[in-house]
Amino acid sequence: MVLVALAASSSGAVQIPLRDMPTLLFGDPAPADALWRNVLIDIRLPRVLFAMVAGAALAISGAAMQALFRNPLAEPGLIGISAGGSLGAVAAIVLTSGGFWVLAPAAFAGSLLATFCAYALGRRVPGMAGLLLAGIAINAVAGAMIGLFTFVANDAQLRDLTFWTMGSLAGAKWSLLAFLGPWVLLMSWWLMRQWRVMNALLLGEREAQHLGYALKRVRAQLVLACALIVGPLVAATGGIGFVGLVVPHLVRMTLGANHRWLLPACVLGGALALTLADWLSRVAVVPAELPIGLVTSLVGGPFFLWLLARGRRHG
């Protein structure tokens, strides 16, 4: 993790030698090195740390969703969290000109509203099938609305829409990190405390009830927790796919399905994975920058196909 963070902090449109980083951070650099210091402290470090925070949040919420649905292909976007946030942000881009401080609340509100609608509709059907079907419907409606807004957007708005919906960490700042960092740590700590109930859910709904868990309350708590941890990230970064799907799989293949160890490992694995993806997005086409969602999709898509092929062979 430390080596990846150092490589990500030193690489980009402006190359910073690793040997000079201690002086830039803690010493008194020469005036000629002032640019490196500003780039490192004001741009690179908050971005690397924010990538770690976002990756950890996406991975642990993906593991929680997979336990909730008892499906290794589940991820936070399954119940409309990401699609609702994207719809809120797209609507803010097309209908207003308020910038990030309008876009972010709109995206967060969209995530919460989509999650509430999915849960309210899904609880009418027993079991998790209702929530799954409601999530599919919410995703379909949100996708149609995003398409409509894209159709009526002008050229400038269309560029913003395209870049935002593909995801980016370019907006990382110390002020944003100061808010989201503690929030993600708090929500991740709460999810890690639920490892027993997640293990019980793997046994089946009836078995979990026999162990004394109130399933309706457990579902509501886990769905709300995932919305509260992913919603702010969608508002800040846009759509970043596959981290919540791929990382829990890799960790589960290595450590097993016990959530006591799976959840903390997902936090570390997600932080590492998204930091690597962001580093690749910055160095692949220097001095330009690829949307990070494009990088995660290029890596996660083939992995997803491999999982399907592997499951078919073992099946």
Automatic annotation (TrEMBL):
Biological process GO annotation list?
Answer: siderophore-iron import into cell
As for membrane topology, the entry says:
Multi-pass membrane protein
| Keywords noted in UniProt | Cell membrane, Membrane, Transmembrane, Transmembrane helix, Transport
Q: Name one GO cellular component term.
A: plasma membrane
List the transmembrane segments.
48-69, 76-95, 101-122, 129-152, 172-192, 222-249, 261-280, 292-309
Q: Where in the cell is it found?
A: Cell membrane
Judging by the UniProt lineage, the source's domain of life is Bacteria
Which is an annotated Pfam family here? FecCD
Per its record, what are the GO molecular function terms?
transmembrane transporter activity
Gene3D superfamilies xref list: ABC transporter involved in vitamin B12 uptake, BtuC (1.10.3470.10)
Q: Which family does it belong to?
A: Belongs to the binding-protein-dependent transport system permease family. FecCD subfamily.
Its protein name is Iron ABC transporter
Classification of source organism: Bacteria, Pseudomonadati, Pseudomonadota, Betaproteobacteria, Burkholderiales
